[in-house]
Amino acid sequence: TQLLEQSPQFLSIQEGENLTVYCNSSSVFSSLQWYRQEPGEGPVLLVTVVTGGEVKKLKRLTFQFGDARKDSSLHITAAQPGDTGLYLCAGALNSPDSNYQLIWGAGTKLIIKP
Amino acid sequence: DAMVIQNPRYQVTQFGKPVTLSCSQTLNHNVMYWYQQKSSQAPKLLFHYYDKDFNNEADTPDNFQSRRPNTSFCFLDIRSPGLGDAAMYLCATSRAQQETQYFGPGTRLLVL
Question: Which residue of chain B is at minimal alpha-carbon distance from A102?
């Protein structure tokens, strides 16, 4: 069974603090996506990482793909209330038996308190 | 501009009464997916179409069916909704298999 372990599952912090969300697996991914989802809406793509060691920045969000393409992290600097939401990672497996499926992390429910 | 559109956004149905959810896309993507999501959990893939080829997940109940009459549209039919089928249903598309998926806003289904 392919797993993508996402942590923490829940995080509640004050505005202005920094935080990091992790997704880890024993599987090698051909790519990994990060999504943010607000209540009652569909997941919105934040970034896709493809290359091992890749770092992408989206304003205060920094995404990193591990060198071996088995893990990824999302770091938020100076969190704002507008960052509140469910963050999901999803990895595409580099395997002929999984030619369509994304492996999903369980999600991190993030609350930023003003 | 909306790229993946789902209608309706909210659907209320009665126990056992068939219901159809609709998805359309303007991206001209080859692959369309249907997911079920329950509160604050990861989406669970029900099935997907690669062009006209239908791929069902092994654990998707027979109660769930899908149709893709053309590239732009895909439908989710729930033949006899049970209380446990109340969830958010998400449609997604990708240009090709294993490429980035783009989601619609979802349809929240309530079963009474």
Answer: B98
